[in-house]
Design brief:
The complex is a heterodimer. Chain A contains 17 helices and eight strands. In chain A, the strands form two sheets. A four-stranded parallel beta sheet of chain A has the order 2-1-3-4, sandwiched between helices. A four-stranded parallel beta sheet of chain A has the order 6-5-7-8, with helices on both faces. Chain A folds into two domains: 118 residues, Glutathione S-transferase Yfyf (Class Pi), Chain A, domain 2 (Up-down Bundle), CATH 1.20.1050; 159 residues, Rossmann fold (3-Layer(aba) Sandwich). The longest helix of chain A has 17 residues. By secondary structure, chain A is an alpha/beta fold. In chain A, α2 packs across α15, α4 packs across α6 and α12 packs across α14. Chain B is α/β, with parallel strands linked by helices. Chain B folds into five domains: 124 residues, 3-Layer(aba) Sandwich (Rossmann fold); 177 residues, FAD/NAD(P)-binding domain; 58 residues, no CATH class; 165 residues, 3-Layer(bba) Sandwich (FAD/NAD(P)-binding domain), CATH 3.50.50; 70 residues, Alpha-Beta Plaits (2-Layer Sandwich), CATH 3.30.70. Chain B is built from 18 helices and 34 strands. In chain B, α6 packs across α7 and α6 runs parallel beside α15. Chain B is globular and about 90 Å long. The two termini of chain B are 21 Å apart. The chains are: A alpha/beta, B alpha/beta. At the A-B interface, loops of A face β24 of B.
């Protein structure tokens, strides 16, 4: 099956392992990812702080490119890109005057018909229903699913999950044999782009996230956003300094966790690229394994 | 020859700002049959009405068109004025130049032209108007009050004290409503039970009031003055005449751990129960869903211990019809619950409770006998955070309105807590303090200044539990949005007041309109606040919008006066704008062929069969006949009639045809 794919800058740079795991998992499930041709920056935080029309024109061009390439459904793994694309589609649909201006800037046809999936929606739609066919071993860990802000907010536009207490990632982890912990910081701010200018703030905010995950006895933090990942992983030394404890809890992308569960090797998933080493204990015994998955346990492809 | 008078109103500037009223008057004056045409600033004022009356007398008018606002408000005004000048009031029509023209269009030539067109059609219509006489219908002088909370109680007592019969219908086993659950009331801190329970007893003992508890309205037929209310009296599994209310059964019932509705889940009740000790009537009902006999087929302990043998396991629901002239809806409100607040942990943490639950904790008759103890471990909380606007004024939660009562009861809660736990700390997170009302602002100030409630202006983002404490994170927007974190022992959410469950179904049963939030809609927000759009059905209390006790009581008395005014007449006059089947002399009698297509479509069951008999008494023709007492003039039968034999007075086919022709013939 063919699916459009917008990587954005992060997946080509700082979070290569996210891209590697997305591609590897999709390949396993026979999803052929087709990159949006000649894609550009989504504008991220910078554009919408400076110029409204620019902040819409950039994502609109990506969507227009996808349309012209005949991609009616695209997956956008980066939560920030996903948010910008969805917001743009919404504003273009609801503000006709603004939409006309943006279209004039684009100079290309824009219909706004592309269906935009975030990574969790991709997993829900195409991975989990076919999980049984590829199930290898349970991801048998206590996981703190961290959604951050961009994946679920603003709810009025994204219409995805519950903004204050999202559940979809927890559900995916449960399906691959993990135990999502009930914790309080799943939608708290990680500090985001302050990573560069105010690392001390990020250390504090992310520190609280890490601390709460550990307090709730999580063994691994699961994310779906390159920004969250870099703050939780790359900024760990600062976080540890703030916390005054050497925390070692690894941070995995949801696709890496799924990749492990379907038997993709660690290197292909890019686990070695993390700053916080991923040493998940071997755990072959089945604990809290969902009944429907027991039959497929240990099956190789 | 028709002599029509046309009166164009400026409505201050409401109409004249976009419509050239003088031009409309001048243009209309040239129409054939118009004897007089003028414009004036306020046609509804005394000089305006005098203008109309004088013109009728001086110009010998045969019909009047007032071009002004919507007929909803002032049609009665102008019809009355016309009648005073000696013309039949139904020879007066209104052209709506405000809602249909000036308010919806910019100032332009075409706007004035539209006004002219509308007036022109009405002139043609009124030429065909016939003098009509109001219909008189008898009034059943008995009121049904639905809901036995403080509003229903007030309305019932007021009506009963005017000498009229009242039937009160309450869904729960006892009357009293939410007010009976409250501890003390703002702004005087008098005990809610002490002021309410005597009123409850008064209802039960009033010779003019019949009380049906554990009963629901399931149907309504008829119209103002002549309603028939269908009520289901749910089986209490009890012979109420035999029961003395001794309470032995409730103490012996083996099922004891059912969360009590009255205690808001903070206490328990048995399967056979009286909701609270001061209940009226003070006789138990069996909750069949939880009773062991009904679920498992054995037990019958209550039956064995009952000294008067009053238990009736085989009792069935009873349906009763009540004839009534008017209804008062006083079905009250509810508060928002459950997982609406995942971020506040409501339903997840035992010590995050809502305002009604706090009322029970603070109540002398509550599960803790008035001591403030938190639900999880029974400890006295040293620090409580009160969160105002939990759900209210929050478009993200789908509730954009202000629940109105929360600012005041939250101040009261903080105060009660401080009175009972002197060393305790009370924090209140708020958006604004809305304390409009007599002595309300002073009350809130007292909570802050004398009782040291710490008010923090800002919203709470999240609440979570940690080591037995509830961590409340919020912002203090008076300190530049500085984040605030409080370790509390208990959190009280002032959750939004919402329409009571079942409100929508009841509104549909009664044909009463309701708003987007399922609150019942008043007929006019300012001038008809206790009326509904259905004549003869009135509103009292919080079923209309969140209201506090004084407001609910005031509205209830208002509704009671409306009912009493209705009952002050032996007959009601109704507009005669009803359907009629044409009748002629013999041999035709009518063009009606007796197909009765009209009968099933009539929503009011107003169509009857009329038999035409010859001298020998043999039926030779059956015609449809409209009962003018039942007909509401909706016109469905007119549209359905295959032989065009039905017309509506005031809107005859001919009148409407004249209007259309006038529009087509420029």
């Amino acid at each position: 099956m063919k699916l459009g794919y917008y990587p954005g800058c992060s997946l080509k740079g700082g979070s290569r392992e996210y891209k590697e795991s997305v591609v590897a998992v999709c390949r396993k499930f026979d999803i052929h990812l087709v990159e949006v041709p000649d894609w550009n920056c989504c504008g991220a935080t910078a554009a919408h702080n400076m110029n409204k029309e620019l902040s819409l024109a950039l994502p609109a061009r990506i969507l227009a490119q996808a349309e012209s390439a005949g991609l009616d459904e695209i997956v956008v793994p980066c939560a920030a890109c996903y948010n910008r694309l969805k917001v743009t589609q919404h504003e273009m649909a609801h503000q006709p005057e603004l939409a006309e201006k943006v279209k004039a800037i684009l100079g290309m046809e824009y219909k706004g018909s592309t269906s935009i999936l975030n990574i969790i929606q991709l997993i829900e739609k195409y991975i989990l229903p076919n999980l049984d066919d590829h199930y290898y071993r349970p991801f048998n860990y206590k996981a703190a699913c961290y959604y951050g802000c961009l994946l679920v907010r603003p709810h009025s536009i994204l219409q995805f999950d519950r903004a204050e207490d999202p559940q979809t990632m927890d559900e995916a982890i449960r399906k691959i044999g993990g135990t999502p912990v009930d914790w309080e910081f799943k939608v708290e701010c990680c500090g985001a782009g302050m990573s560069v200018s105010r690392t001390d703030l990020v250390a504090k905010l992310t520190g609280k996230v890490v601390e709460n995950a550990l307090y709730r006895k999580a063994e691994v933090i699961i994310v779906a956003c390159p920004m969250c990942h870099s703050n939780l992983d790359m900024r760990r030394p600062d976080v540890n300094k703030y916390l005054g404890v050497e925390t070692t809890i690894p941070v995995l992308y949801i696709t890496q966790a799924i990749g492990l569960a379907v038997g993709i090797d660690e290197k292909t998933l890019g686990l070695q690229r993390h700053f916080v080493p991923v040493h998940l204990p071997e755990r072959n015994e089945i604990v809290d394994m969902p009944a429907e998955l027991v039959t497929t346990q240990g099956k190789e492809e | 020859m028709a002599r029509i008078g046309v009166f164009i109103c400026h409505c201050g500037e409401n109409i004249s700002a976009t419509v050239d009223c003088a031009k409309v008057a001048n243009t209309i004056a040239k129409i054939n049959g118009v004897a007089y045409s003028t414009d004036y600033k306020y046609m509804c004022s005394d000089p305006g009405q005098t203008l109309i009356k004088d013109a009728i007398r001086e110009k010998h008018l045969t019909g009047v068109v007032v071009a002004a606002c919507s007929p909803r408000m002032h049609e009665p005004t102008f019809r009355k004025a016309v009648a005073e000048a000696g013309l039949n009031s139904f020879l007066c029509e209104m052209a709506n130049l405000r809602e249909h023209v000036s308010w919806v269009h910019e100032k332009a030539e075409s706007t004035t032209q539209k006004a002219i067109d509308i007036v022109r059609t009405l002139v043609e219509k009124v030429k065909k108007n016939q003098p009509l006489d109001p219909i008189k219908v008898p009034v059943t002088k008995r009121a049904v009050v639905i809901g036995g909370g403080v509003a229903g109680i007030q309305a019932a007592l007021d009506i009963a004290n005017c000498g009229h019969e009242v039937v009160m219908i309450e869904r729960e086993p006892s009357i009293g409503g939410h007010m009976s659950q409250l501890s003390e009331t703002f702004p005087t801190l008098d005990c809610s039970q002490c002021i309410l329970t005597p009123r409850m007893v008064e209802v039960a003992q009033h010779p003019n009031i019949t009380l049906y508890t554990y009963a629901e309205v399931i149907g309504l037929e008829g119209f103002i003055g002549n309603f028939k209310v269908k009520v289901r009296k749910k089986s209490k599994s009890l012979d109420e005449d035999l029961c003395t209310g001794c309470g032995l059964c409730t103490t012996k019932c083996p099922v004891k751990k059912i969360p009590s509705e009255f205690e808001q889940g903070l206490g328990f009740r048995p399967a056979i129960y009286v909701p609270f000790p001061q209940a009226v009537p003070n006789k138990p009902v069996i909750d069949r869903i939880n009773c062991t006999y009904y679920t498992k087929g054995k037990c019958r302990v209550c039956e064995k211990v009952c000294p008067t043998k009053a238990i009736r396991f085989d009792q069935e629901d009873e349906i009763v019809d009540i004839e009534a002239g008017a209804l008062v809806l006083a079905t009250g409100f509810n508060i928002l619950k459950t997982n609406f607040f995942p971020e506040y942990g409501y339903g997840k943490y035992k010590d995050v409770i809502d305002g009604l639950q706090f009322e029970r904790l603070a109540s002398a008759s509550g599960p803790t006998l008035g001591e403030i103890r938190r639900p999880s471990d029974g400890k006295v909380p040293e620090k409580i955070v009160f969160v105002a606007c939990a759900g209210s004024r929050d478009p993200a939660k789908g509730i954009e309105y202000c629940s109105k009562i929360c600012c005041m009861y939250t101040a009261k809660h903080a105060m009660l807590y401080k009175h009972k736990v002197h060393n305790g700390e009370a924090y209140v997170f708020y958006m604004d303090i809305r304390a409009g009302g007599k002595n309300y602002e002073e009350f809130v100030r007292r909570a802050i200044a004398e009782d040291d409630a710490k008010y923090v202006r800002g919203r709470v983002s999240t609440i979570y539990e940690r080591d037995g404490k509830l961590i409340v994170k919020g912002a203090d927007t008076l300190l530049n949005g500085r984040p605030v974190e409080i370790e509390a022992d208990m959190v009280v959410l002032a959750t939004a007041g919402i329409a009571n469950h079942g409100a929508e179904e009841l509104a549909q049963t009664l044909h009463v309109s309701y708003d987007a939030y399922k609150f019942f809609a008043e007929a006019h927000p300012k001038l008809k606040p206790v009326e509904t759009n259905t004549a003869g059905i009135f509103l009292a209390g919080a079923c209309q919008a969140p209201k506090d006790i004084p407001e609910s009581v005031a509205a209830a008395s208002g509704a009671a006066v409306k009912v009493a005014a209705l009952f002050s007449n032996d007959e009601l006059t109704r507009d005669p704008l009803v359907a009629v089947v044409n009748r002629f002399g013999p041999p035709l009698f009518s063009t009606c062929v007796g197909c009765f297509m009209c009968q099933p479509v009539c929503p009011y069951q107003a169509i009857e069969k009329e038999e035409i008999k010859d001298r020998a008494g043999n039926v030779f023709k059956v015609l449809a006949k409209v009962n003018p007492g039942l007909c509401q003039g909706c016109g469905t039968c007119v549209a359905l009639c295959r032989s065009k034999s039905i017309d509506i007075y005031g809107y005859t086919n001919q009148q409407v045809y004249q209007e259309v022709v006038a529009l087509l013939n420029e």
